[in-house]
Amino acid sequence: MKLEHVAMYVNDLENCRDFFVKYFGATSNSLYHNHTKQFKSYFLTFDGETRLEIMNKADMVDDKKSLTRTGFIHIAFSVGSKEKVNELTAQLKNDGYEIVSNPRTTGDGYYESCIVDFEGNQIEITE
After folding, report:
1. Which of 13, 34, 43, 88 has the fewest CB within 10 Å, making it most exposed?
2. Beta bridge mates, 39
3. Helix-strand-coil split of the chain, %, nearest 5
4. Element (H, E) at 72
């Protein structure tokens, strides 16, 4: 069994797609638009089979996002090395994104940093 994809609703579909393409090397399919349901989505693919579906719908609810809420809390991207973790974290910081935790080795052995994207979603960057 494998995890097929993860999906998330976003307010700014185009900006979200551009974010994942620019910083995490995603490739995007063409926009899917169901006019009847007022639903739009993109599938973003990362290094082979890993996919993230980003979606937008007219009647979404946009509650405040606490970093300690229940449910799905972050997505993690492996960038291949400690140096790349450091470089991407610095680039995101320079581009104005909030850094939740600077690059470090965690108690469970991961070298990682955590940032918050423009819609309040936490993203973990690992080696």
Report:
1. 34
2. 34, 57
3. 20, 40, 40
4. none
Mean pLDDT (whole number) for 112-126: 96
The span from the CA of 97 to the CA of 77, in Å, is 16
Instruction: Choose which CATH entry (3.10.180.10, 3.30.70.1230, 3.40.640.10, 3.50.50.60) describes domain 1-59.
Output: 3.10.180.10
* Angstrom distances, CA of residue 70 to CA of 5, 64, 67, 86: 20, 13, 9, 29
The pLDDT, as a whole number, for residue 65 is 81
Rounded to a whole number of angstroms, the CA Rg of the chain reads 15
> How far is 78 from 46, CA to CA, in rounded Å?
10
E strands along the chain, which residues?
6-9, 27-28, 32-34, 39-46, 50-57, 74-78, 98-105, 111-116, 122-126
Whether the predicted pLDDT of 43 surpasses 90: yes
Half-sphere exposure of 65 (CA within 13 A, CB side): 16
